[in-house]
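> call design_seq(struct)
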């Protein structure tokens, strides 16, 4: 916690209020010019940071800067929640983009000025704080994020919360892990029919404290979706009598894998006084020793490869790793019981897209490659404002409306166009 407080104080010290800049002789016009030139970054209305500091911050640090600015502007100390609480508590936020500041407010649920307010009741046991900034606790933050976050982000946060609760390393007590899962399931039951409860239960069963980073957690999720059984933190004896801990072993494939973030070769704290070239050479020697001593080849991947399951699968194919051809099955277990439970499916956004595609467009079937209305892979493309026959119109929302095959379309076309005035269009 001391490290978190020091990080938040450092970020807060880099923030500059507009009034402070004016006292230093920077007028409003000069301030606007500095923002246009990229020398100054507007964090929030009336708050700024130097561009050098902003570029050095991780996305979570930038969100913390916005949270601190909102905290200093508030008349009464707000209670931060969701992504804002996660950033304050040091939890990893996968693919964090421009997210508004989240606060709990039982008096006013209106949102605005970069703040999203949530009308939720928070019991006293779920209150926490860092460096004088109030926020929801770890388990409550995970519960709240299940309402709005996708599956990959939730897995990374659940791994971190579980790791904090039971510890890390090889001496993890399975009873403590099960007690944490039981407590989280009770929280889900107490929340009733909250949005995201089913997803959260899957993630609770899937969480593993041995995942050292959010990249490892998301990679685990991709492996489970692809039906590849893995074990975490494979120990390999070292030449000096010690040991190496390899992130992943792909069971039955003779492959070991490392999930490497860019910070491994750029963060001064992780470099330990070495240059990036020295760190890369040291990593290469480590790979050679592991490959020679175990007879298993090493593969590496990073954040870009884990952005989606499809990209992750393409990376594995490039390494000539065979992928199961069946449907996505249950998450594999490693024998310890830590990964027992149903597999996590696609994230919520892609699941919604899939349901729409299955209910409205997939019934039309896919055409052969090169046919009209199909792409180069034979997947049916949907013209603008085109709908299958006898379905509600997506534009006018008037229920079942008369549909007719457009005269310019082939008679075998699966699409029909709503003939309601104002919705008419043609299939190219």
């Amino acid at each position: 916690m001391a490290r978190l407080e020091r990080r938040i104080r450092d970020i807060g010290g880099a923030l500059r209020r507009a009034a402070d800049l004016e006292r230093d002789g920077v007028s409003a016009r000069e301030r606007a010019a500095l923002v246009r030139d990229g020398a100054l970054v507007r964090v929030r209305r009336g708050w700024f940071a130097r561009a050098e500091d902003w570029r050095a911050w991780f996305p979570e640090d930038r969100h913390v800067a916005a949270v601190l600015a909102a905290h200093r502007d508030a008349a009464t100390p707000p209670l931060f929640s969701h992504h804002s609480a996660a950033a304050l508590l040091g939890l990893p936020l996968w693919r964090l983009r421009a997210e508004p500041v989240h606060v709990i407010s039982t008096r006013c649920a209106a949102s605005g000025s970069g703040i999203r307010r949530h009308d939720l009741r928070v019991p006293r046991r779920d209150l926490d704080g860092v460096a004088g900034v109030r926020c929801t606790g770890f388990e409550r933050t995970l519960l709240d994020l299940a309402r709005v976050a996708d599956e990959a982000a939730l897995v990374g946060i659940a791994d971190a919360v579980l790791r904090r609760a039971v510890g890390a390393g090889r001496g993890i007590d399975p009873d403590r892990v099960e007690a944490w899962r039981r407590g989280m399931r009770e929280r889900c039951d107490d929340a009733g029919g909250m949005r995201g409860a089913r997803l959260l239960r899957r993630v609770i069963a899937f969480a593993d404290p041995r995942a050292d980073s959010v990249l490892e957690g998301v990679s685990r999720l991709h492996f489970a979706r692809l039906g590849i059984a893995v074990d975490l933190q494979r120990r390999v004896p070292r030449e000096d009598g010690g040991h190496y801990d390899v992130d992943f072993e792909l069971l039955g494939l003779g492959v070991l894998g490392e999930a490497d973030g860019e910070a491994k070769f750029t963060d001064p704290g992780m470099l330990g006084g070495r240059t990036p070239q020295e760190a890369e050479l040291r990593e290469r020697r480590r790979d050679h020793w592991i490959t020679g001593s175990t007879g298993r080849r090493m593969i590496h991947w990073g954040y870009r490869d884990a952005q989606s399951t499809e990209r992750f699968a393409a990376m594995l194919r490039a390494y000539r790793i065979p992928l199961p051809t069946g449907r996505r099955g249950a998450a594999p277990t490693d024998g310890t019981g830590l990964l027992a439970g149903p597999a996590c499916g696609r994230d919520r956004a892609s699941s919604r897209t899939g349901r729409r595609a299955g209910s409205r467009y997939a019934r039309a079937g896919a055409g052969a490659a090169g046919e009209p209305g199909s792409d180069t892979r034979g997947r049916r493309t949907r013209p603008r404002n085109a709908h299958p026959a006898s379905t509600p119109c997506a534009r006018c929302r008037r229920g079942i409306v008369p549909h007719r095959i457009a005269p310019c379309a082939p008679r075998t076309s699966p699409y029909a166009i709503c003939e309601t005035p104002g919705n008419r269009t043609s299939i190219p």
